[in-house]
Design brief:
- The protein is an alpha/beta fold.
- About 40% of the residues lie in helices and about 10% in strands.
- The protein has 13 helices and 5 strands.
- A 5-stranded mixed beta sheet has the order 1-2-3-4-5.
- Strand 1 and strand 2 form a beta hairpin.
- Helix 1 packs across helix 2 and helix 7 packs across helix 8.
- The termini are far apart.
- About 25% of the residues are buried.
Length: about 350
């Protein structure tokens, strides 16, 4: 205890950097979950549980409530199956309007997410995709982040990667973007991350922010907890120098001041999804999901149907009709012309030939 009250704990609350009280909270949290029979799922290891404790400042009762709500929600939305279950068929078309995606890693190996939320009209987007499909799409992507992207980045770096780095360009922002539908759209993304995937984001840069954005930030700020707000930097157009401290310019799209154009990808950087998750495996849950998706693709592939060979068209071969042989002329005999016995009985015969058979 100092003259100014309780000394703030300088430990980060991440594995390997826990204070004595934080370690005690983790041990008690784990024990309570086990003894109460909440879950025995092996995915909820200490790294996973610490995210909920950090989100609730290591207050055990609040972290426990958050975790229980999280488990109930996962059952309701079948989140364990989200990677395979949620096909989101309209998302590819929606992404042509709303450009976003993962684009490599930052300087410490965390997934680098890029987003342009002000480059589309919300009414046009909602003609392509419903709010329900957007919700399930976000759930699916969070599950892929946890079980495919993070493990691959961990394999790449040789260290535990459990957070991402985000870059949002709000170029084109106007107060017209604050219509009710737009606010609901933003709340969907915020609420899923805040309530069910806490402590996923390490840092977020909101760039190209006009002066008017201060009004919008005042609207959305109450929906974001203080700990998360501290991770967000809002800057104007001169952001590249500071950004490049965290992300190499080669991983930043050229249109955002970097050097990458993803020339080999249709649609460019926002559609590339480049990253180590294409080279390194996910965890056991991510790999199981990928295997199931591959099996479904095989089932969906059309089975080649043999093209029927048309039966050969048999053209009747005309058989010559024997011409009548005139009776022998008696006069010819008298003239010394020899008679041909049986000439009048000559007939023409043809062997039967089967079309399509090799000559014998």
């Amino acid at each position: 205890m100092s003259w100014f009250g309780k000394k703030k704990d300088k430990h980060t609350g991440f594995m390997g950097d826990l204070s004595g009280s934080q370690q005690e909270a983790l041990d008690e949290f784990r024990k309570t979950i086990r003894d109460s029979g909440l879950t025995s799922d092996t995915r909820y290891d200490d790294y996973y549980l610490l995210r909920f404790l950090r989100a609730r400042q290591f207050k055990l009762d609040k972290a426990l409530k958050m975790f229980k709500d999280f488990l109930d929600w996962r059952v309701e939305y079948r989140a364990d199956e989200a990677i395979v279950l949620y096909k989101c068929p309209n998302i590819p078309e929606a992404r042509k309007l709303y450009q976003h995606g993962y684009h490599g890693v930052d300087r410490v190996g965390r997934p680098f997410y890029i987003d342009q939320p002000c480059k589309f009209d919300i009414d046009e987007l909602l003609q392509v995709v419903t709010k329900d499909e957007l919700y399930t799409y976000y759930v699916r992507e969070y599950e892929k982040l946890l079980h495919i992207r993070f493990p691959a980045c961990s394999a790449l770096t040789g260290t535990k990667i459990e957070q991402s780095f985000s870059l949002l360009s709000i170029e084109g922002f106007t107060m017209g973007k604050l219509k009710e539908k737009s606010r609901e759209f933003v709340k969907i993304a915020i609420s899923i991350g805040r309530d069910y995937y806490p402590e996923i984001m390490a840092k977020m840069y909101i760039v190209n922010a006009p002066f008017l954005f201060k009004g919008a930030w005042a609207i959305f700020k109450p929906f974001i907890d203080e700990k998360t707000r501290d991770k967000i930097s809002i800057v104007g157009s001169g952001f590249q120098k500071d950004l490049f401290k965290y992300v190499d310019p080669s991983n930043v799209p050229a249109e955002l001041g970097g050097k990458c154009v993803c020339a080999d990808c249709e649609g460019g950087c926002f559609f590339s999804d480049k990253g180590p998750w294409h080279e390194y495996p996910g965890d056991e849950f991510g790999e199981a999901a990928k295997q199931q998706l591959l099996e479904e693709e095989k089932k969906d592939d059309p089975v080649p149907v043999p093209v029927p060979v048309p039966a050969p068209v048999v053209t009747p071969v005309p058989v010559p009709v024997p011409m009548p042989v005139p009776a022998p002329d008696v006069s010819s005999q008298s003239a010394g012309v020899p008679d041909v016995p049986g000439l009048g009985q000559v007939t023409v015969q043809m062997d039967h030939m089967q079309l399509g058979s090799p000559p014998g």
